[in-house]
Fold:
Amino acid sequence: MKLKRLNLLLITLVFSISSVFAQKLKSEQISYNYTRIPSANIQGIKNYQLAAEAAYEAKNAQLIAEYKQQKKLAIEKYDKEMAVYTTLVKSANESYEKALAEYNKKTLGAKIVEKSMLDNGKPKKEHIPRPYVEQVEEPKLQSSFDYSTVLNTYVKLEGYQNEPSNALKIVVLFYGFDHTLPRTASEEATMVGSKNGSTGTYKETTYYTEFSYRHPMAVKVYTPAGKEILNVTPAELNSYKIYKGSGSNRPPAAVNSQLLIKTNEEKVLQENLKFINNLLNDKYGYSSVNRNATLYYIKNAEAEYADLTLAFNEASSGLLMLQQDGPSGVSKLKKAAEIWSKALAESDMNNKKARINKEISFGIYFNLLETYFAIGDVQAGQQTLEKLNALSMSNEERRTKLGYDMLFADLKKRQSLN
Structure:
């Protein structure tokens, strides 16, 4: 009996010790905004100006001019034919009146003889076909836009003023909406269903409207002195995409192709300009970028982890303050980094019972990396990454580290250019 109680006591003790040293590290997602510096060097320039070039506008103008000319020629032809027509009608009427008068002078017998023998009865008025204006088909034109309004709506270089003095000149080139004609397409799928208590497969056909489209655009950027520093036609905007309407088990009724095309053209125009806006701001803008970060903390932290709790709270509020109150946000983040760095001095990767064991150490390292990235401290970030390189990591930890490798490499490149 005593042995049984002793075993129970040992089991309880082991369980208690295991609970104390069970995993304590937890994580929390924090969404914050930071200012991303440009990836190109254009120091000293604080303004920008937008301009548009649409090559198809000249083609539109040519087609309209040709259409007007063809309509003019058609009217001129009609006027000439009407002048001839009037003369022919007058002559035909006079001939008819004269013939009718001669016919009316004849006796009834003579009229009967002429009708029966000569098949030459009462005169008939000659029909002169009336001319008509030939229809000229209206040209198919590329859509025109209020380019100034469109560009100022969707393209904004962050950190700059839209002013003409000493400004970057941004030219967006529009090549026009290109598309195939909408068509009804179908696809067949094998479905599983039950009927009368038995399960089986059957074929189901789905019908939908589809067409291919693209709206190629390019962008050029010039310095205030007129030097071209960017000229790119993004492949993403030059490739065809496929519009696929909602499916139905019946072929769709007649589709308003013109409305469908117009609606998608406007949508694609907006999407492409947003793409160009992101491209420009990545290279030249001081953009507010949203980032979803992971910070690690100790769950139900006891007094022995008061320092890590304080660091987590300081870092959390510091990240959220970065764009509203930058200096205060940076100060809080630096304070958190000092606490975490001090805690790492007692890290013991081989002792699960250590206050700063392997699991908690990795959480602190990743917290430091997020903090250094947020305040733009590339040197401290790279030193932390080098320390991690010397440690044995799980696949998940290695993937997390790789993400920070890429972040700091990009940040280092941007800082070197600015």
About this structure: Residues 110 and 116 are 10 Å apart (CA to CA). The first helix runs from residue 2 to 20.
